[in-house]
Amino acid sequence: MTKDDLLKDMAQAIVEGDRQAAEALAKEALARNLDLHEVVEKGYIPGIQKVGDLWERGDYFLPELITSAECMKAAMAVLRPALERARIADVSLGKVVIGTIEGDIHDIGKNLVASMLSANGFEVSDLGADVKLERFIQSALDMKADFICLSALLTTTMLGQRRFMELLKERGLRSQFKVLVGGAPVNQKWADSIGADGYAENAPAAVKLAKSLRGKR
Ligand code: B12
Description:
Elements: H1 3-16, H2 19-31, H3 36-56, H4 62-85, E1 94-100, H5 108-119, E2 122-126, H6 133-143, E3 147-151, H7 155-170, E4 178-182, H8 188-194, E5 198-199, H9 203-213
The chain binds cobalamin.
């Protein structure tokens, strides 16, 4: 099978909710030593995006959405150790607290950002999904984080990103951390409007952004 066929099959496995295929293809990508960033960005992500489109059009319902999301998570679980092992630098480029805002259980994209930051030499503390704003602050203070990364996939939880910025200011902590925001409904304009330090549209861009902001205050 060519690489392009493999990538197409990955997308299809997610669309069809075929967990066995999604996992087997991820294992094949590892065995063939493929570029895992390409595998994720050109194989699996287009699959879950298609699922989102089908759902929006009313062709898929919540059960299909859940099944596809589980396949995506299963495939990412196969790839995650290798993504993280591919650590480029052995020195820490900075400490990162990451999570999905409270009220939001989407975590596939956040997990990818966490894995890639970790693979690129950042020390990452992943708080998971549905994380209370207070917890982000406490964890960042406890680990003396450089970055706080907030993921939001719902328009409602995007508002939590804005509230978070306000909370940091109220606590007099704004200058202590760089805050990065992301998630499908988020964009640069939103990041600017809430006074975040940066926005990135995908995991590789998040790594680039974090690297570019290192040491800046
Ligand atoms: C999979 C999925 C689910 C799964 C989630 C499983 C999981 N464990 O994550 C399940 C089935 C559980 C689910 C549930 C729901 N979902 Co949903 N879901 C999706 C779907 C199809 C894909 C999301 C995804 O994983 N994308 C793939 C990843 C790789 O992309 P990503 O998350 O955007 O992340 C990338 C970037 O955004 C960026 N990034 C992400 N986070 C961060 C953070 C930082 C700091 C940075 C820099 C970058 C960054 O990098 C990532 C990697 O490249 C989207 C559709 C879509 N187009 O997004 C809908 C979608 C997000 N869901 C939606 C909805 C409405 C829901 C539900 C409310 C449905 C319901 N009626 O119950 C619930 C929400 C429950 C809750 N309280 O959270 C809507 C949101 C609409 C809106 N405007 O608010 C969407 C857009 C679908 C739609 N078109 O209507 N969902």
